[in-house]
Amino acid sequence: MKILRWAGYALATIALLVCFAATYVKLALPDTGKAPDIKIEKTAARVERGRYLANHVTVCMDCHSSRDWSRFAGPMMTTGQGAGGERFDQQMGFPGTFYAPNITPYALAGWTDGELFRAITTGVSKNGKALFPVMGYHRFGRMDQEDIFSIIAYIRTLPPVEKDVPESRADFPVNFIINTMPAKAELSPRPDTADVVAYGKYLVNATGCVDCHSKTDKGSVIPGTELGGGMAFKSPAGVVVSPNITMHKQTGIGNWTASDFVNRFKAFAAQGYVASPVPASQPNTPMPWTMYAGMKESDLNAIYAYLQTVKPIENHVDRYQMH
């Protein structure tokens, strides 16, 4: 009887500790600090730099707009840009239902520049709520402060679009774990473009290549699989798996030249290019080719130069899996 009584005490203590931990995670986190008190001047240079980054590098406009999934690679629709609404849910392998919010002035008029900066670089929204890292704040928090300022300056110039987006909801236990995900920014200066490899590494982080071209578990990249491909994008028509973009000669892009790499992107920016229709019975690639195609050739070359320095991963990928 004494053993059972002590076992009961132990279980009660464990339950109490778990309760305290859950309460702390739910109420005290996330904690990345207060939003900075900043006012970003919308200079022409900043807005133009932000336009380039948001549309062709960080591709903020990709997720925060509507895409035409009836055509190859889901090109961004010309109307409602920045109004949000793209859905990332359990069918796609995410632990919940997450919506890209409206980032036009209609929704952000009440946000300060500091609140936007904190959300983009640490993953904490205006009301202190944790954002799920389908939003690349871990990456953006390692970028150059001036680049983030430029993105904010640009989105402040977007035409307001009156669209209310549903609230994102994480499944259990991620609805608790999500509060541990935001982290303080570790900003770093943008490398000189003359240091091609270092600059390419900066761009690979900004573009989010690792986020999609790796194996994932519950939305998080599995360490050791970075850039080796394997993330599965599910749809009613089937599954599209991201390719291996390391320089492995048999299973990656090790036989590609720099020109091959650049031309693969620029083909989608060629004069007269129109994305071809994709039947609903076939899976479509989520890769926003038409957006990345707008990257400068020098930036694409820098990315290729960096990829050449990454350890090749042997990982054969079957790209399309039909239902």
Question: Secondary structure elements and their pairing?
Answer:
Layout: H1 2-27, H2 44-57, H3 60-63, E1 87-88, E2 96-99, H4 105-108, H5 113-122, H6 137-140, H7 145-155, E3 169-170, H8 174-177, H9 196-207, H10 209-212, E4 216-217, E5 220-221, E6 232-235, E7 238-241, H11 258-266, H12 289-292, H13 297-307, E8 320-322
Antiparallel strand pairs: 1-2, 2-3, 4-5, 6-7, 7-8
Strand content: 5-15%
How many individual domains?
A: 2
Unreliable residue runs: 15-27
- What gap, in angstroms, lies between the N and C termini? 58 Å
Q: Strand tally, please?
A: 8
Portion of residues within helices: 25-40%
Oligomer state of the chains in this structure = single chain
Q: How are the strands ordered across the major sheet?
A: 1-2-3
| Succession of helices and strands | HHHEEHHHHEHHHEEEEHHHE
Computed over alpha carbons, the radius of gyration is: 21 Å
**Shape field:** globular
Q: What structural class do the secondary elements suggest?
A: mainly alpha
> What is the tally of helical segments?
13
Q: Mean pLDDT, nearest integer?
A: 91
Biggest β-sheet strands, sense, barrel: 3 strands, antiparallel
